[in-house]
# Entry
Amino acid sequence: MSSSKLLLSRGLRVSAARTPGKTALICGAERRSYAQLRERVDRIASNLVALGFGKGDRAIVLAPNCIDYPELVCGVSDAGGIVATLSPRSTAREVAAAARDCRARVLFVHPASAGAVDRAQLPTIEHVIVLGEEYEAWLGAADPARSPAVTGAVVPIETDPFTLVYTSGTTGQPKGILISHRSRVLTFHAMAMEYCCYGPEDVQLGIAPMAHGAGFAFIMCSVYFGGTVEILPKFDAELVVRKLATEAFTGVFMVPTHYSSIFALESAFLARHRGGAGALRTIMSNAAALPQALKEKIVDYWGAGLLHETYGSTEAGIVTNLRPRFQLEKPRCVGPPFALNEVRLLDDAGREVGEGEVGELYSRSPYLFNGYLDRPGETAAVMRDGWVSAGDLAHRDRDGHYYIVDRRKDMVVTGGLNVYPREIEEVLLAHPAVREAAVVGIPDEHWGERLRAYIVPRHERPVDAAELEAHCRERLAGYKVPKEYRDIAELPRNAGGKVLKKELRTLR
# Structure
């Protein structure tokens, strides 16, 4: 296989040749066959080339989940370009900052996000194309036969980046993460092997935002291998439960906040939709830690033998996966290394730690990113001799399974002792009145930092602080018990579902 063949659009083109009339995408009342999808990708690439858009040029997609999303990413990459996928909730200031950072020339925007487009702040943008009638007219004027993939003028090679995913900014300013065709395609092959729900006969329910790296990958993998995926424009807990109960989906990927919202529904509703169509064989979770109490609810509701919890990062790709048989057997575990992945835990001096000892998790695989855009120093800071770290601390058991302790930057030092908030959060989430919890360190003159817990109550009434303290003291050493408990309507999160703890630390 030549180096030009591991390309993002390669799978959909093979599927279009094999099953042209098969439905690839469903979104509401809209459907796209593989033949239609291939033609639309060719039209996008042809139009972009006609605009002088070429190898290494950048385009922005600013849209919620929609049926056009996969073709836009594939079309831009077939023209040799790189797609920056921005959260549809981005402000005009955030869009302008990303456009300046990547020097984007083209912007595709959904009408729902058009309010965040201020042309005066976008000096590098030469063309703004609004999805809907304008976009369809733009496609209609294209000659698909002039697409580089059709003419044989293959522009990208597999090591070229096809997408630019901006970090959440949970620990600082967002950075553009470059991901190559090869990295993503090899990830797809490993996903198909590991999850067993990405074959040509499989049907996925696509829920997570495609603007996030994981959300796009778990949807696009289905298209790459010739399956069918139904994309939901936005998450609706009741709709998801009904669909999984009545329709023949074989796989679904959700982030922890989705599962939390589902189990916050009325118990009578959940009881009515328990069981279902019987086709579902794989449930996947990623993007943030899945609390053990929530894992137990998922297994109880949908049954054993389905749930996979995947750990990874945009920089490293998928790193580990805990298979269904271990979900209850190994609490708070994220599994052994994913296919083709090497993992090691290092102390501050760069030495590997032993079994049961905490170290910073580094991984090495074909899934690694190409680096941060125009930030060689920051790229080097997360790399160590070809291994990459997302800044997570972990330990390993005798079976080679890994347990994430916490993010290094979220660790709290109180009274000279290291405390990992994730351990406390797991305890709080085991309380029946707690729906969500986040623990942060707050500056304290005496302790250095004191622990503050933010609680989203399961019911409308606040959770009694004395009750929470008693619950924690039964399960945690005294120095790990929060000094404060604060109710909050919802935890601040990024598009991928991660809690923005830097925002919680600013609350007073």
Q: What stands out?
A: The radius of gyration is 23 Å. Residues 415 and 445 are 10 Å apart (CA to CA).
